[in-house]
Amino acid sequence: MASQRVVIWGGGLAALSAGIHLLQEGGGAKFDVTILCMEDRLGGKAASYRLPDGRYMEIGFHAVFGYYRELQTLLARAGRPINDVRYFTSNDGIHLMYEPSARAVNRLDIPKGPLDVPALFNSGFVRYEGMSFAEKLAAARWMATTGARLLLRDVPPELDELSFTAHCVATGLDPRLTHKSWFKYVLDLAFNFPNEGSAYVGMYGFQRLMGPENSEVFYLNGALSDIIVRPIAELYLSLGGKLELCTKVTRATLDPSSHRVTEFHTAPMAQGAPVPGQPDRVTVTPIGGSYALAEAPYPTGEPAPPSSAAERRWQLGPDFDQVVCTLPVDSLRHLLRTTPSFERAVLEVPVLRKLWGLRSVASLSLRVWFPEKVMPSDYSTVVMGTPQPAATIIDYANRVRELASSPWGSVVEFEGQEGLHGELRDRELVEELLRTFRTLPFVNAGKVDIPRVLAQSDGHHFEFRRNTASHLRYLLMEPGHWRHRPVQGDRPYENLTLAGDFIAGTQPTASMEAAVRTGRVAANLLRAEVGLAAASP
User: Fold this and answer.
1) pTM here?
2) Per-residue exposure over 213-228, b if at least 16 CB sit within 10 Å of its own CB, e if not
3) What is the pLDDT of residue 85?
């Protein structure tokens, strides 16, 4: 039997996972796999990049949680086990929570299990500043009854129909406690602010964090692309996978009569030259008039090649047999609109019609390099619950080995999303983040010189990314969103398989783990068609 030609749209972890799991364990004889990535680097929303002077920038808060089992397995296969201290350091399950009402940072250790309520309160709420004794009793009473029951059982997806907050109040939680950071952070963590969070996703997150192994967070000793993306890309290539960078899928034809993707078109985003020793990226030369990846690697709008760029036509049969689509939901919707007979080919197909019920949100990433220390050295883990528009703040110079040995006093990362600040311009958002940062009690405000940061002067630098491009937006996990997430087994067309962190599955949060898992499931659907056993995680 001739190899099936599989083309994967997208270049994130879902695409790499799908490619690896297709080719492993006998798949190399059955499949010819090509990944098409429109960026000049792999990684998608999980990528990072180096600045000309060697400093690196992430486009989100990236770490490997203890319950990211499949990502950890894939990393181990790629030579990056999370217990290798050269690449990862653990937070040992310690979490810091800022409580605005008390202007205090509290340490919250995660209980060993759902019934370990005393651990939560002995290590956390007994000394938790910002809660009265009566509020602590009320929280303990709710956790020991309703909260414990929710943590012990599967949470019905129909709880999506209620907000997380409303559901908890309806089951006995004192409404005053919903204003505390330890509670509100669940909403922020899922990029839901200022929307009400999904009860299903919120309780799932609580369940998965129970236990020391699950709540442990492994921080990267360097850039995510260097430590995670590149070795996984090397594993994919070592299995015989092919890769095209700077290639955008511009149009697709879905034929509702034959139930197949019959053709699609691609166009170059830029001309790429391989970088020796770095197979996950290329250096780029802009095509005349096109979006220049080298100048702005993470755009604020949807990049598109110029009209003069020659398109390549890919036809079913001569060029491909199967398509695995790992594009984020916004990019996928944009592409689906290009098919002829859109109403019949897309909106009359239940799996695809669902996608129009999902919404996305633009995340924010601000990194500031200070010449002097501005956060305490013992703050070596994320401070959660900080004021919006950044729900998490961390000084990576306290955590990352590469930065700890650098001349920078502090390398502060701000992570959040637009929320109620969407009307602000980029510079206004940066100023707002810095002004709020200076007011925090654990920050040495005298060392935070906002004019110098904004002017990039006297040893102060900042990089800001507002990830509004459709391929960088995150899924908004709002109440009711679950019923719109497609199930991978319900393939919309015979030769079209969906994967990505917006797919319904065993990992309902939009995360690196969700991307890796759905990539493996997509591969197994195709492996089954050619008589291969399911790929090992």
Assistant:
1) 0.94
2) ebbbbbbbbbbbbbbb
3) 93
